[in-house]
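quick one, 120 residues, struct below
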Amino acid sequence: QVRLVESGGGLVQTGGSLGLTCAASGSIRQINAMAWYRQAPGKQRELVATIPTTGITNYADSVKGRFTISRDNAKNMVYLQMNSLKPEDTAIYYCYAVVVNVYRVERAYWGQGTQVTVSS
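---
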């Protein structure tokens, strides 16, 4: 079994910064794509940023220039540095990873989510 655990959420004022961390553990052979999603109250879950094994990052237009996604393949971790936060960034942030397990079976996993609240 594979588990994703996020940490680093919290309450911050407009213009502040937060860093999120996601640690993957379990029967992992390799991790392919990794990403962060978010879901605000009353809205659908949306993609925030992705980082495949190539390391080429992609961001939602709403966070470009403010958020940075990175990964540490040796530690099976993905990070999201969020700067210049706005109230509209308030949401539950979810880690996502496509994992190949030790039995060479590939599937997607989600973390449990971490709350980010930006006060105005």
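The mean pLDDT is 97.
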